[in-house]
Amino acid sequence: MQRHHDAGGGQRAALFARLKPSTAQVRVLRGLWPYVWPSERPDLKTTVILSLTLMLAAKLVTVAMPFTFKWATDALVAASGGKMPDGQAMVWLVGLPVLAIVVYGAVRVAMSLLVQVREGMFAKVAMHAVRKLALHTFEHMHALSLRFHLERKTGGLTRVLERGRLGIENISRMVLMTFVPTIVEFALVLAVCAYEFDWRYVMTVLAMIVLYLWFTVAATNWRIRIRREMNESDTEANTKAIDSLLNYETVKYFGAEAREARRYDQSMAAYETASIKAYTSLAVLNAGQATIFTIALTLCMVMAGLDVMAGRATVGQFVMVNALLLQLFIPLNFMGMVYREIKQSLTDIERMMDVLEVPPEVADRPGAAALAIRGGTIRFEGVKFRYEPERIILDGLSFEVPAGKTVAIVGPSGAGKSTISRILLRFYDVAGGRVTIDGQDIRDVSQSSLRAAMGVVPQDTVLFNDTVLYNIRYGRPDAAPEEVYEAARLAQIDAFIRALPDGYRTMVGERGLKLSGGEKQRVAIARTILKNPPILILDEATSALDSHTEKEIQDALDEISRQRTTLVIAHRLSTIVHADNILVLEKGELVEQGTHGELLAKGGLYASLWNRQRQAEKAREELAHALAEEGQRIEGGRLSGEDIAPGTGQKATPDTEQISS
């Protein structure tokens, strides 16, 4: 008995597990309803009502069509010498079979016109729903935290958005324009069977509909599991392809083309297997549906044939039952397709709805005011922060960046330097303490006003796949062309841009890959100059530049930061020797601060970092000098006609000559 009880519990658990997706799908449909029936657009509501009215009219005409076929058949039988049955309402058509056929054709035309007008009218509603929900999802993705995007793969996320958008379009059209009309047509066909024939036909057709729909639901649920596998494989393959192409140069560095192809092929192999299962299951579904329908059609025609031979029905009624059921096969087939499409579309947009339900980690407080900049003084007061519960990044950090001053933050890797800029921009909220600008807690002001007051030049610049002009003007979209050119001139990139074949209209490529690292960084500096913010954040803004250009741009940055509050996150200490104050971090704590000279005099961590960098720079200079001398000796040997042993700079011996030959 205990074993039987456990088995029953397992069966119930499995049943509940199967019910869970349905609950999720009902939730999705509820979420979609406001977009299909938009409260802010009365005109679209009117369009929905008109579309449904046209749908009802089209179905009434559709059900009337087999009657015209019957009348035409009976008229032809009568015209050929047959006897019209008593009580026929269309006796006047005797001798006019052509007119009956014309009526049949007119009804078919009317049905087609009503369907097409309805489809065209409802397209306005469907595409509005697609646009609004896609826009809402896109805005929500931007509202989510940096943590969410760092943990997600961009290719997979865009695929979710794409599939969800197509799913919305399918559901909005299928449910209101196909599912509801088909239910109406089922009811009308059963009513006609009851009126024109008898209960046997009604029961046969009803049993066929129920069995057909049961088989369709069961087979489609089986196919949905296969569809999920196919979607996951497709997403994985797409993600790997995007990730590999975005890292094109890295792949080339390591000669990993074959390795990347194998990784992609593994994902495509899984997609191939799932796709084959999907097509096979579709064949099984179609074959089963056709078998169920054909059996019911045959039974009804046998009954109608027997009734004709017994004198209880006319030849027209025999033809009518065939036409009625064949016509019913179209919505029945649609119903199978509708169920499959709705289930598949719901599967596709489940993940989109999951994304929509992720709450933003950082959100504006109700009634958050705009940040009021009076001077731009920044204060960190006992700030604590951690990405993971067990990983402390900042532990009670306190410092001040006075208005109009330049403060640099330095320290070993992992000290928390970049985290400070992310907190200041409110990509994350602090776990303890607070951050203020001119005395205003940044959690109490709107994020848009906070970021509008800041200009950021990141270490790793990523550009939009658009023109140079677009990327610079991104700092201030309403800027005049002359202002853009001036910003580019200050960033030491105007001359380079003008030398390009298309000038400022030059496309920079995906992520700006057509530009060098230094060129991308100068574009980032130009758009920050154009933004003209009161607060600057420079995250090693000259790291990708050569020494000569670095000096020029450093002078430009010094000029534009003169009247602004500037926070510099530095890795190369030579770029911050003129800072008003230098903060030295280690393991999330402030261990030293002062000017460059004061910190060197202390002989602490900063002095150690400075000496280490100077030694590394000196070693690089000596190596470059040695290589230059080596090159000169080799070139001199060639000019004098001497043979130089490859890679040695020495005159070659006969043995060396023999080896090299």
Summary tags:
661 residues; alpha/beta; ABC transporter transmembrane region fold; Rossmann fold; six-stranded mixed sheet; four-stranded antiparallel sheet; 19 helices; 10 strands; 65% helix; elongated; disordered N terminus
Give a structural overview.
The chain is 65% helix and 9% strand. The chain has 661 residues and is of the alpha/beta class. The chain folds into 3 domains: 21-356, Up-down Bundle (ABC transporter transmembrane region fold); 378-613, P-loop containing nucleotide triphosphate hydrolases (Rossmann fold, 3-Layer(aba) Sandwich); 614-655, no CATH class. A 6-stranded mixed β-sheet has the order 6-7-8-3-9-10, with helices on both faces. A hairpin with a 2-residue loop joins β4 (432-437) and β5. α2 packs antiparallel against α3.
Q: Topology as H/E string?
A: HHHHHHHHHEEEHEEHEHHHHEHEEEHHH
User: Helical segment tally?
Assistant: 19
Total number of distinct structural domains = 3
Q: State which percent range the strand residues make up.
A: 5-15%
- State the distance separating the first and last CA atoms: 91 Å
Largest sheet: 6 strands, mixed
The name of the CATH superfamily of the largest domain reads ABC transporter type 1, transmembrane domain
Widest sheet: strand order?
6-7-8-3-9-10
Mean pLDDT: 77
